[in-house]
Design brief:
Elements lengths: L3 E5 L1 H10 L4 E3 L4 E4 L7 H8 L5 E7 L14 E2 L3 H7 L6 H5 L1 E3 H6 L4 H4 L5 E3 L17 H7 L5 H14 L2 H27 L1
Length: 197
């Protein structure tokens, strides 16, 4: 297995967490496991290599070895990784796949934080992740934040989330669209009432 030692400064470490989807990241051990069918662009590799010497990070390509699939309380597995795993041969670790959870589907099925906390699930976010303000959020996402709390950049993540939340218009736009739709339905209902009376 090829191992490449790189160093990340705080900002670039954060950038790797937020921007690079489908990576298995052991934050407390500062390990990024890169998946072959995802990989990094040349620009991203240069960004990582040229970062300041604040975090010592081991980068290794995913090759299906069992140690890539270990789940522990100090591991955050991000986004669509479960889709990648489901396409691989995971006969050695069926339990791993049994706790891959799609956040939207789980929410639609009535699953909540209390139903899945403590089992270290892989939570797949088909839209933007818990750190983004451009989607509606579910209480299941608290698990991601609990893992993130163990990282050295937790406060920075929270600051960015708050900054984004204060400037993001997603909820306002969503509320406005419901209001406009409600106005149309109210008008149509009044027209029907007028015809019937």
């Amino acid at each position: 297995m090829i191992k490449v030692k790189i160093n990340l400064d705080k900002d670039n470490y954060l950038q790797a967490i937020v921007a690079l989807t489908s990576l298995c990241k052991n934050y407390t051990g500062h390990v990024l496991v890169l998946f072959q069918n995802e990989g990094l662009s040349g620009e991203e590799i240069n960004m990582l290599k040229n970062a300041l010497n604040k975090y010592d990070v081991e980068v290794r390509p995913f090759n299906g070895e069992e140690d890539c699939f270990i789940i522990g309380a100090n591991i955050i597995i991000d986004g669509s990784i479960s889709e990648i795993l489901e396409s691989e041969d995971n006969s050695h670790n069926k339990d791993f796949l049994s706790i891959a959870i799609n956040a939207d589907a789980a929410h639609d099925d009535g699953m909540r934080y209390d139903d899945i906390k403590g089992i270290h699930p892989i939570i797949s976010f088909p839209k933007n992740g818990p750190w983004s303000c451009s989607d509606l959020h579910y209480d299941i996402e608290k698990i991601w934040w609990e893992y993130a709390k163990q990282t050295p950049i937790y406060l920075k993540l929270m600051e960015l989330f708050l900054d984004n939340a204060l400037s993001d218009s997603t909820l306002e736009d969503y509320a406005n669209s419901i209001f406009e739709e409600n106005k149309k339905l109210t008008k149509a209902l009044n027209e029907v009432k007028a015809v019937l009376t």
